[in-house]
Amino acid sequence: MRTSRLEAFSDGVLAIIITIMVLELKVPHGDTLADLRDTTGVSFLTYLLSFVYIGIYWNNHHHMFQLTERVTATVLWANLHLLFWLSLYPFTTAWMDESELARVPTTVYGVNLLAAAIAYYVLQQRILASEGDDGPLRRAVGRDLKGKLSPVLYTAGIIAALLGGEDNPAATKVAIAFFVAVAVIWLVPDQRIERTIKEYGTPVED
């Protein structure tokens, strides 16, 4: 199977996820900035965080498949596994927002982020297994320090969220800070795959 079909399907799913999330934003009843802040303030910030995460996954997914030469059945299922966890972002984001960052919804949001990260790692490993030790993607991934650090920060955020809630709002803020930190880490441009694409060139599809 050509990678273009998998990429097109994945792009469509991610576009729908973003559309669903933006529809969750509440329209202010008034016409002032104060009404916008009071009605949509937290909602917009949680939407922005999840939007950035979807954008990061879309970007990395695109680059990864630029260096993927063949798609096996396990790669297809691993990709669907990733899309499943990403498709839950609108739900967990809305629940966290409507609960005003309550302990359980914030914890579930963190678990969703961690699960998606694990799913991406599984997808990457399935591609590496199908490409062999000499594949261009393996060279581009390297030690993958970001990939190893992210689950640690997610777990720290989940633990902080479990300790948070109405009685300990500071812990909830710490949890959100961990989640934001992971997004910031991945927003920093990573030239490994770009360099490898230039070196190997984009795989030619039959």
Number of domains: 1
Task: Specify the structural class.
Answer: mainly alpha
Largest β-sheet summary: none
> What's the N-to-C terminus distance?
9 Å
Tell me roughly what share of residues is in helical segments. over 70%
- Spell the H/E element sequence: HHHHHHHHH
What is the 3D form?
globular
Q: Let me know the number of strands.
A: 0
Low-confidence stretches: none
Tell me what portion of residues adopts beta-strand conformation: under 5%
For the CA atoms, what is the radius of gyration?
A: 19 Å
Report the total helices: 9
Mean pLDDT across the residues is 87
How would you describe this protein?
The chain contains 9 helices and no strands. Helix 3 packs antiparallel against helix 5. By secondary structure, the protein is mainly α. The longest helix is centred in the N-terminal third of the chain and has 34 residues. It has one domain.
Write the layout of secondary structure elements.
Layout: H1 3-23, H2 33-66, H3 73-87, H4 89-98, H5 103-131, H6 136-141, H7 145-163, H8 169-187, H9 192-200
Helix pairs in contact: 1-2, 1-3, 1-4, 2-4, 2-8, 3-5, 4-5, 5-7, 5-8, 7-8
What's a concise summary of this model?
This protein is mostly helical. It contains nine helices and no strands. It is globular and about 55 Å long.
